[in-house]
Q: What sequence folds into this?
């Protein structure tokens, strides 16, 4: 803020100066402005605590000398009424030049301490160019004024001014072209020095037509005020800060400025000749020689700069490429570069008719390993794995790291698929021996997935994905250590993908159907309810059974869509039956199978209640069947079942006896019915019927009902009767029936068969 106040005040005082008539008052104002400038520089230097105050004290001293010169000049003029030349004023002025030049010089040094040869040559070119002009038009006329009786001392002093100005100007050029930050203060500084140089040069030029003193005084005063203001500016301390980047490049703007400086002197000679005041031949030839040498030197520097820059660029390009292509931890190729290599290899294989193989190595439980041993040991293991892989496959196969604990080996044109499996075997052997990072002994198991492109129809990312699928298959298998993704598996996957798409279409475009299998009371043979079972009517008239498509649907959220559809359709159907024949259906139930994945989905409760609300079916009619294994596979199952039960629906545990639930656990489970798996009825193992008896007794003790599945023969039914089982379901009574058959009451058709059994 202070600097703005100073600048404003300075402008006001300069305006006042112009209003006051020439005389002592005006000169005092002039001196006051100069003195304020000196004080401002000193104050600013202290105020902003610049790291290198040297240049600033030189500036202050230079300006002080200048003010002294002004004071002596004014004293002579106003008090003694003489204007001697040379006088003590000139001594002061000529002391000011070297001081200011030293200030600018030390500032340049502080800003860029490195030797800047090109910048120095640039300044020399400007120095010589402008020096020649000022010699030809300013100094030489003064020197040759000997004829008019001027003393040698006077001539020398007169010539010293333009010399000083040219020196300041050259330093100014060096300041501008040297590397360093260019702030507002920097521009103010350049402006201040430039104003001073312009005013001096104009003053010294013999044929000036200035309206002195007013016009030139304005420039000098402006320079004083600018000096003072910039010293008070808070950015002044940053002026001597070193630049972050080397910015003294050979730019187009520099080139133009240098060209102009180089052309300036020949142009001067031409103009001089045209005006009939030719410059002497020595000056012309000498100047041209020096300038040409300097321009040549500058060109050499420029060529060198270009060479260095090009070298740096090449190095940088190599460096960027290396970093992009190599994993910093292991030194192996990166995923991106590996994909590029695979793509190239596939392309070559397409032309040559050869296959391409990818071997994907995945470390088992690596995350758990780093959790236990820490990331540093983890890194050691990864580096060691990389070393072992490279050692095992040899130099002819590219090896990369996909990220984390996955590595990949590219096998170009394997002679047969056996070669890829051979490589996999080698790798497994290499990785089998224990790792010894930091003296610890750690076992790391590796799993390998292979993919081989034999029909040339895949791209790099597909081939990689296939290797990953093969790898996942290995993980899923308890015994395998590698798996090959070949054309056979590729076809299988394709079929699965196609099936998923077709199933999705079926869900939303009416390709699914439900059939209903009656559940009967063992004691009376009366129908208790039905189990809804899903069928998929394929486009070609083939009916697909759940075993074909439910496992595929369970691999994605497709199973939840299916579950929602089944819930909606079943409840709607049952409500319709009940509306048509309330008497027959009022005590019957409808069971729906819900998959574990859908049960894990938080929307399951909402899905069930939405189906009940939409159909208007009371909740007690609905049974949700989940398989026993779900209790183990879906940790949240028990909570979800509790929430479903709270809706008022019944929970039935399907396929009981095939999972790991103990009979004792039944006590704690939120379950109403147990469905004994069909395998128990068919088992010929001794003790099967005792097991059924045990399950039934335990379930009854907990207030649960027991349903037996898959009853096909009368003797099985008799066993169930003896064991006091509640309900049964099976082909002996009826297979799954169409909704129309149930609606029409056709299920009664099988009751006589039950009578036969009873009689038997
Ligand atoms: P589940 O729930 O245990 O269904 C009983 C299966 O046994 C049904 O086969 C049924 O047709 C069959 N079955 C009935 N009585 C007998 C018999 O006396 N002997 C023999 N050998 N089999 C009999 P299905 O319809 O093929 O269903 C198979 C499995 O598919 C079901 O087993 C169930 O786990 C699943 N499933 C069926 N529908 C759906 C559904 O809508 N959603 C879900 N998530 N799964 C379903
Ligand atoms: Mg079932
Ligand atoms: Mg079952």
A:
């Amino acid at each position: 803020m202070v600097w703005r106040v100073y600048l404003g005040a300075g402008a006001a005082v300069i305006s006042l100066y112009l209003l006051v008539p020439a005389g002592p008052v005006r000169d005092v104002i002039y001196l006051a402005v100069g003195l304020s400038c000196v004080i401002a520089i000193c104050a600013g230097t202290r105020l902003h605590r610049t790291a290198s105050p040297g240049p600033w004290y030189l500036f202050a001293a230079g300006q002080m000398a200048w003010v002294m010169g002004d004071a002596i000049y004014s004293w002579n003029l106003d008090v003694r009424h003489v204007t001697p030349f040379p006088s003590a004023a000139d001594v002061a002025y000529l002391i000011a030049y070297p001081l200011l030049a030293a200030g600018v010089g030390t500032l340049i040094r502080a800003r860029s301490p490195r030797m800047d040869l090109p910048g120095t040559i640039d300044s020399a070119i400007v120095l010589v160019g402008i020096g020649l002009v000022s010699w030809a038009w300013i100094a030489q006329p003064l020197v040759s004024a000997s004829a008019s009786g001027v003393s040698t001392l006077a001539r020398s002093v007169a010539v010293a001014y333009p010399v000083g100005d040219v020196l300041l100007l050259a330093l100014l050029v060096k300041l501008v072209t040297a590397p360093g930050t260019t702030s507002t203060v920097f521009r103010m500084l350049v402006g201040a020095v430039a104003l001073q140089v312009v005013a001096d040069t104009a003053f010294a030029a013999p044929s000036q037509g200035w309206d002195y003193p007013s016009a030139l005084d304005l420039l000098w005063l402006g320079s004083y005020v600018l000096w003072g203001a910039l010293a008070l500016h808070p950015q002044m301390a940053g002026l001597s800060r070193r630049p972050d980047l080397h910015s003294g490049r050979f730019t187009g703007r520099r080139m133009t400025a240098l060209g102009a400086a180089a052309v300036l002197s020949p142009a001067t000679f031409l103009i001089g000749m045209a005006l009939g005041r030719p410059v002497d031949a020595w000056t012309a030839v000498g100047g041209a020689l020096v300038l040409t040498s300097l321009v040549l030197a500058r060109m050499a520097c420029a060529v060198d700069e270009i060479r260095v820059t090009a070298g740096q660029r090449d190095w940088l390009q190599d460096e960027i490429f290396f970093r992009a292509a190599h994993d910093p931890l292991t030194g192996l190729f990166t995923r991106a570069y590996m994909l590029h290599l695979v793509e190239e290899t596939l392309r070559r294989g397409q032309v040559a008719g050869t296959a391409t193989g990818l071997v994907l190595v995945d470390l088992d439980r690596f995350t758990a390993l780093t959790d236990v041993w820490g990331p540093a040991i983890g890194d050691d293991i990864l580096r060691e794995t990389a070393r072992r892989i490279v050692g095992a496959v040899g130099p002819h196969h590219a090896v990369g790291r996909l990220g984390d604990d996955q590595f990949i080996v590219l096998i170009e044109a394997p002679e047969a698929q056996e070669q890829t499996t051979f490589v996999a075997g080698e790798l497994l052997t290499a990785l089998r021996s224990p790792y010894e990072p930091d003296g610890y002994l750690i076992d790391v198991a590796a799993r390998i997935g292979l993919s081989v492109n034999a029909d040339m129809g895949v791209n790099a990312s597909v081939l990689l994905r296939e290797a990953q699928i093969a790898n996942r298959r290995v993980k899923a298998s308890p015994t395998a250590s590698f798996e090959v993704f070949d054309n056979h598996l590729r076809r299988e996957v394709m079929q699965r993908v196609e099936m998923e798409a077709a199933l999705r279409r079926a869900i939303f475009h009416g390709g699914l159907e439900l059939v209903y299998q009656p559940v009967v009371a063992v004691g009376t043979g009366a129908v208790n309810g039905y189990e809804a079972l899903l069928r998929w009517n394929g486009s070609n008239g083939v009916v697909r059974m759940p075993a074909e498509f439910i496992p595929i649907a369970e691999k994605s959220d497709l199973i939840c869509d299916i579950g929602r559809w089944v819930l909606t359709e079943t409840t709607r159907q049952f409500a319709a039956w009940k509306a048509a024949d309330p008497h027959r259906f009022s005590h019957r139930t409808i069971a729906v199978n819900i998959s574990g994945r859908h049960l894990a989905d938080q929307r399951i409760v909402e899905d069930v209640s939405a189906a009940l609300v939409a159909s208007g079916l009371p909740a007690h009619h609905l049974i949700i069947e989940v398989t026993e294994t779900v209790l183990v596979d879906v940790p949240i199952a028990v909570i979800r079942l509790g929430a479903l039960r709270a809706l008022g629906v019944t929970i039935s545990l399907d396929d009981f006896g095939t999972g790991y639930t103990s009979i004792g656990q039944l006590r704690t489970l939120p379950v109403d019915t147990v469905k004994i798996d069909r395998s128990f009825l068919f088992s010929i193992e001794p003790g099967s019927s005792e097991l059924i008896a045990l399950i039934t007794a335990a379930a009854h003790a907990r207030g649960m009902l027991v349903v037996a599945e898959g009853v096909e023969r009368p003797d099985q039914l008799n066993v169930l009767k003896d064991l006091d089982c509640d309900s049964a379901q099976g082909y002996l009574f009826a297979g799954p029936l169409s909704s129309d058959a149930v609606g029409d009451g056709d299920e009664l058709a099988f009751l006589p068969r039950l009578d036969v059994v009873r009689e038997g």
User: Anything to note?
Assistant: Residues 168 and 425 are 80 Å apart (CA to CA). Residues 517, 533-534, 545-547, 550, 566, 593-595, 625, 654-655, 678, 709-712, 729-731, 736 surround C2E (ligand 1) (CB under 6 Å).
